Amino acid sequence: MYTSIHFSPQSRDARDDAEIIHRIALQAVRAEQAGCASIGLTEHHLAGFNTYVDPFLLGAHLAAKLEQAYVSVTVAQVALEHPLRLVEKINLLDVLTRGRSMVALAPGSASKTELQAFGAEDLDRNRVTAERIDAMLRAWAWDGEEPGVDVGTSVDRGLVAARISPASYRHPRPLISRATRTPETIARLGREGTPAIFGQWLTTDGDARDQLAIYTDALLGAGHDQETVDECLRWLGFGLTIVVAPTQAQAEKNWREYVEVGGEGPQAGRLGGAATWEKEWTHREVARASGSLVGDPARIVEEILRMKEAGSHAVRIIPAVVAGRAEDREETFSLIFDEILPHIGTQQLPDPTQIRSRVAATV
């Protein structure tokens, strides 16, 4: 399994921010040493819901500390940014990681709090995201000749008439994927040979294994070269939110406390949070907790191996920890690194210089 630790910590208030961000860097290095194939980052804004906010800035910092693990962004919120700015950010991360990065594109959060802060609350996010991704692909495909490339959309203007810099490390562009849950889009991505990033493995009906067959059938039936097929399959998998403790009983106790206090970040209504986002925060945390796998390390290993047997090649482990419990966070990561990862057959992702880098292209 290609394993990723997904870092999306939450802050109770401003006093938590600096220490949480500092610890992510330390935990990311530990994750690489324990065999993780990638370090997962994401994008959320405001209220401490994702302490570091910007996966590209934090990813650039981690790039100097990691030797083999990729930086994977799941996801970049396309609905919030001009397509050219995203191209530049993704290219720079690609260079700093020497091709060891993957960025999943998606409309992103439906949070009213986030959207109105960027003036995007009235956007048709799905349509604008599709238009912006098309504009990004045009930018990456442009050969640098006149008269330039139009990166405009129905809500953006832009004409690129000079070389986009930095150039990506990979050739012809960075490793890009799409995050989706809809069967139609899953099949289309398979036909296109685009890596697909799925949501949570566990569902109210059991699990999401049906998505694997839809994508794999479309991918293998489209006549892609083996390199494309292999690259897509390396990222084929799900997120798995876990509440883990040394015993099943302790894990269940931690899960009940997580729900009771309102999750990992601000406890809605308890810390005097703004009324405009209290309800939204509580909804996010309840949703996060409802899809969790709760158990001891053996239970977590059992579920990940069940994913693998179903055809999943990758897993994003998403730890959920009760607010203000630094000792529980350390214990959680120790259990993941010492008692879970050694039992699931972790694999490393390939060196980009041997596949689709500009270095390889010029040799």
Describe the structure.
This protein has helices at 17-33, 55-63, 83-96, 112-117, 125-141, 183-192, 210-220, 226-234, 248-261, 275-290, 297-310, 326-340, 358-362; strands spanning 2-6, 38-41, 70-77, 101-106, 149-150, 159-160, 176-179, 196-197, 202-203, 206-207, 237-244, 293-295, 314-319. With 363 residues, it is α/β, with parallel strands linked by helices. The chain has a single domain, classed as TIM Barrel. It has a 9-stranded parallel sheet, with helices on both faces. Strands 5-6 form a two-stranded antiparallel ribbon. α6 packs parallel to α7. 47% of the residues are buried. The model is unreliable at 268-272 (pLDDT under 50).
Key attributes of the depicted protein:
363 residues; alpha/beta; TIM Barrel; nine-stranded parallel beta sheet; two-stranded antiparallel sheet
Write the SSE topology.
Blueprint: E1 2-6, H1 17-33, E2 38-41, H2 55-63, E3 70-77, H3 83-96, E4 101-106, H4 112-117, H5 125-141, E5 149-150, E6 159-160, E7 176-179, H6 183-192, E8 196-197, E9 202-203, E10 206-207, H7 210-220, H8 226-234, E11 237-244, H9 248-261, H10 275-290, E12 293-295, H11 297-310, E13 314-319, H12 326-340, H13 358-362
Parallel strand pairs: 1-2, 1-13, 2-3, 3-4, 4-7, 7-8, 11-12, 11-13
Antiparallel strand pairs: 5-6, 9-10
Helix pairs in contact: 2-3, 3-5, 6-7, 11-12
